[in-house]
Write a structure and sequence with these properties.
Shape: globular
Distance between the termini: 25 Å
CATH class: Alpha Beta
Oligomer: single chain
Largest sheet: 5 strands, mixed
Mean pLDDT: 91
Low-confidence stretches: none
CATH architecture: Alpha-Beta Complex
CATH superfamily: Nucleoside Triphosphate Pyrophosphohydrolase
Radius of gyration: 15 Å
Number of domains: 1
Length: about 180
């Protein structure tokens, strides 16, 4: 799989530093591989609005212990970063009926965050490419292996949810439709 700079170039006006770092990483042929640790690798995630658009879909991540958007590592067989985001979404939540918000195949946001050292992995960065969707149905099914819970979190009260600032920032973009 090839990740090209054109995938996130449209975000340069809003996120110039992040885009520059993503372009640099994209020069490595294995930049999407979960075994590429220096400085890290691309991941893909899905920010999903409820059909009524008043809530966002969050999972309680087992390893991290707080609420995040569905997402994860990119696999070679995904073919594209967006397909990786959709695969992770279906695996973790069962939500498959959705419409993309924005341009197909193009992330609406980027977040670069530190992953701590684990038994078989050094500390590294995740360059998370985020895709926006609107669900067309609201039924949920949590994947028990990686997910401790699943919920539609109201956008109005996201500040009260045990999540991080990057999730709130991306959710705010969805709420404002600044994508």
């Amino acid at each position: 799989m090839k990740i090209t700079p054109q995938l996130f170039e449209h975000l340069r006006p809003r996120l110039p530093e992040e885009v520059a770092r993503c372009i640099e990483l994209s020069q490595s042929p294995q930049c999407w591989s979960r075994h590429h640790f220096e400085p890290g690798h691309f991941t893909a995630s899905a920010f999903v609005l409820h059909p009524s658009e008043s809530s966002i879909l969050l999972i309680k991540h087992k390893k991290l212990g707080f609420w995040l958007q569905p997402g994860g590592h990119i696999h070679a067989e995904d073919g594209t970063v967006e397909r990786a985001a959709r695969r992770e979404l279906v695996e973790e939540t069962g939500v498959a009926a959705l419409n993309i918000i924005g341009k197909p195949g193009i992330p609406f946001d980027i977040d670069i965050h530190q992953i701590p050292t684990r038994p078989n992995e050094p500390a590294h960065l995740h360059f998370d490419l985020r895709f926006a969707y609107r669900a067309t149905m609201s039924g949920l099914r949590a994947q028990e292996e990686e997910v401790d819970g699943i919920t539609w979190a109201p956008l109005k009260s996201l500040v009260d949810v045990d999540t991080d600032a990057s999730v709130r920032r991306s959710a705010q973009l969805l709420n404002l439709r600044d994508i």
